[in-house]
Amino acid sequence: MKFQAIKGVRDILPPESALWNRVEQTAREVFGTFGFAEIRLPIFEQSELFARSVGQETDIVSKEMYSFQDRDESSISLRPEATASVVRAYIEHGMQTLPGNVKLYYVGPMFRRERPQKGRYRQFYQIGAEVLGPSDAPGIDAEVIEMLLAFFERLKLKGAVLSINSIGDKNCRPAYVELLRAELQKVREQLGADSQRRIDTNPLRVLDSKLEHEQVIIEKLPRIADHLCAECRVHYDEVKRHLALRGIAYQENWRLVRGLDYYMRTTFEITAPGLGSQNAVCGGGRYDGLVELLGGQATTKGIGFAIGTDRLMLSLQESPAGEVGGGLDVYLAWFGAAAQPVAIKLARRLRDAGFVVELPAVEMKFGKSLGLADRLKARHAVILGNDELAAGVVAVKRLPGKNPASEDAGYKGVQGLSFGDARSNVVIPTRSAFQDRRGTLSGFALWSRGPEGFLAALGMTMVRSLAN
Ligand code: ATP
Ligand code: MG
Asked: What does the pLDDT read at residue 85?
């Protein structure tokens, strides 16, 4: 029997996983600078939590949840999103007593039984953040959006477009929804089956429709912007003012409603190129009533977003920003039983200094060993055979490596360095010492200057040249 991953789920393999790590690490760094801390949440929760918060009538809960009966017959669901869990945890751990607003982020998989296609999976990943606390100041909304865009900028994501809207609150939205429903009833026969159903269950979602023939009908529907109450209008205007203070460009989209029931007032979405019709990389908004709905204090407000990591990754891979560094720094080719113990120690010193080292576990023939170094795309082969051992040197051969174009590929010289230093107390600068604040390896400038730079990085000096 041959096993395969289940439909709609997939493995993320190297080297792509390195890009995933970089993206998640960047989120941690950027969100950290805005005062957010990570919350690690369970993958499954009581089904009722999602039914209550996301909404029984949403597609997510009614059609897409992976739910099962536990052995004690309680109903459990794999989480389709994480805001409900964050709010559950906030209430459960009494976080409302913490000073100021509580700022949390999470990273991890979500599960929805949707039709798999490009950018849409059944196990997909989100990076999300939430602000919970007593204040709903519009400056918070703008700062959350600023953080999101700072993250995308740091990743060098190109062509991201921010859309915003306000969908009112419990004072003004119900009347608008009824008006919308009444207008939709008049055109019911012209709508598709999904939209017809939504007239009854969730009329706002009709605005979300992508069906070609419904577009002209939707364009004529009443717009929420004309029906906001005074408080929501002021809040929305202030959010826009605070975005302007931050120099953030946005589009207003009156049809931007979120798929989840708990949203109110500010909603936003970010689209990115290269994704076809699945072009939303991030959705977010305000959800001031959710804490109360789940049994917490009525005065607690909330706002947050969720980035679809899979789609972000697809969009990044479309651009040169998606190139990952990493790879093998040194292939340590040793030959002869006497060289092995020296090679083992040298490998450890290089690894302790942060270099990525491959050390063959068994002795190989010269040509085969260096052939493997090439195929592994190592940047340097460090060669240690009997001659070198006797002379107290190793030979360093520069290889084309992983990104030959970006390095000095013309250099083919083979030169020697003393490994005697490796046994003495020479200080090897760590690889992280070369990392600038953004985690970029500026130390690679050293590498690309050839063996001299490599030696300097190791705190060693050249003893002789082995010529070309
Ligand atoms: P969409 O309209 O694309 O279905 P959504 O409104 O269901 O999105 P949210 O629940 O707001 O999405 O989730 C936030 C983000 O998570 C989306 O913008 C998207 O990038 C991502 N996302 C949602 N569902 C999936 C999925 N099945 N596969 C991959 N990414 C997803
Ligand atoms: Mg969806």
From this structure: 98
Pocket test of ligand 1: the residue of 83, 282, 312 to mutate, having most ligand atoms within 8 Å of its CB, is: 282
Transcribe 342-365 into DSSP letters.
HHHHHHHHHHHTT--EE--SS---
The two structure tokens encoding residue 53: 């918060």
DSSP letter (8 states) at residue 404: G
Phi first, then psi: give them for residue 56, nearest 5 degrees. Answer: -60, -30
Cβ atoms of residues 164 and 253 within 8 Å: yes
151 burial type by CB count under 10 A (0-12 exposed, 13-18 middle, 19+ buried): buried
- For 176, phi then psi, to 5°, come to -65, -45
Q: What is the largest CA-CA distance in the chain?
A: 93
Q: How far is the CA of 11 from the centre of ligand 2 (A)?
A: 21
**pLDDT value of residue 408:** 35
Residue 375 has pLDDT above 80, yes or no: yes
The Cα 381–Cα 401 span in angstroms is 10
346 token code pair? 């040298």
Looking at all shown ligands, the one closest to residue 120's CA atom is 1
- Ligand 1 proximal residues by C-beta, below 6 Å: 81, 112, 114, 119-121, 124, 126, 258-259, 278, 280-283, 306, 308, 310-311
Which residues, in sequence order, are bridge partners of residue 129?
Answer: 105, 305
Tokens linked to 230 = 């005074």
Residue-wise pLDDT tens digits, 80-124: 999 999 999 999 999 999 999 999 999 999 999 999 999 999 999
Specify the pLDDT at position 369.
Answer: 96
Point out the ligand 1 atom lying closest to the alpha carbon of residue 312.
20
Closest atom of ligand 1 to 260 CA is 10
* Secondary structure (3-state) at 323: coil
Beta-bridged to residue 334, according to DSSP, are: 384
Please, where are the H alpha helices in 376-419?
386-391
User: Which structure tokens are listed for 390?
Assistant: 């006797």
From residue 460, alpha-carbon distances to 146, 239, 330, 443 in Å are: 46, 57, 16, 16
